[in-house]
Design a protein that fits this description.
By secondary structure, this protein is an alpha/beta fold. The protein has helices at residues 12-24, 35-44, 62-72, 87-96, 106-126; strands at 4-8, 28-32, 50-54, 77-82, 99-102. It has a single domain (4-122), classed as Response regulator (Rossmann fold). The chain contains 5 helices and 5 strands. The termini are close together. Mean pLDDT is 78; it is low at 103-108.
């Protein structure tokens, strides 16, 4: 069984990094450049195991996407990533997501994400 992943990321380089990483681990990825696009995807197909989203997007945020995913999907694991140091936003995200990752620098962000994705793929394989 492969991991079905939905990604909402407005930074093209980060989106490509996530898609390549998860695909290399055997996951099936749907990439969206906005949370609004990801919400529409969830309405069409709510069968996602992992939802990875950027926190700060307009007009809908990663928090908004997380709330929609909790209603539409069957027990998704949600990760919100941010490079924004605003602690109030991060606190709001923690209420709706399973994990919030702050981007300290590109390499540590990549390593944290890769470890998380690898762990989730192993978990889905054992389910």
């Amino acid at each position: 069984m492969s991991l079905n992943v939905l990604i909402a990321e407005d930074e093209v380089n980060c989106l490509l990094l996530f898609v390549k990483t998860i695909t290399s681990l055997g996951g099936k990825v749907t990439g969206c450049s906005t949370c609004q696009e990801a919400m529409l995807e969830l309405v069409k197909n709510p069968n996602y195991d992992l939802i990875l989203t950027d926190l700060v997007q307009e007009p809908y945020s990663g928090v908004d996407l997380s709330r929609i995913a909790r209603v539409l999907c069957k027990n998704p694991f949600i990760v919100v990533c941010t490079g924004n140091p605003n602690t109030e936003l991060a606190s709001r995200a923690k209420l709706s997501a399973d994990l919030v990752i702050g981007k300290v620098d590109y390499m540590s962000y990549h390593k944290k994400f890769y470890s998380l994705a690898e762990e989730r793929v192993k978990q889905v394989k054992t389910d």
